[in-house]
Amino acid sequence: MSLFFETIRIQNRTIHNADYHNRRLNETIHALYGIRTDHDIHDHITLPEDRRCYRCRLLYDREIREVTLTPYTPRTVHSIRCLDAEIDYPYKSTDRSAIDALFEKRGHCDEILILRDGLLTDTSIANIALCDGLHWYTPKTPLLPGTMRASLLDAGRLKTADLTRKSLQKATKFALMNAMTGFYQLKNIIFKY
Question: Among 54, 65, 133, 140, who pairs with 172 as Cys (CB 3.0-4.6 Å)?
């Protein structure tokens, strides 16, 4: 079995969304190994001295195996290729071969948006949200339920729905969200089918 990981934003010497990362880490260990754990990422992360934004990668299986910190530079996304695929990625595993193979099919686009059974799921690195002009919706069945997505759902800022290509075409706004970037709306995005 491959290792699993959490990608955690550390900025201003603060671990962001720690409770959600702890929950997913412990739930993954329980689901895959049948072990109830109470890991707390605060016990494993040494905060950097400066206030810059860092990407913390915490690798684990039954136990925490490795923690690395690297300065973070966000990826720019201007175009997205929509691809149909029958893949599963229910846990944040280091085996991303199915997602990486799809990403290679993006052509000249910056990112991909994966559709499964005709429904929108995620990009290669982020959950998505669409605005209908009034409310923001995120797919009811993403490939991976992200920590930022979970926090925004809990806060009532997002609702879940079955989203299709038609939903994408009708949307007035489109956003990506993940642990590193938070929730950010893309402007003038080009979708290719």
Answer: 133
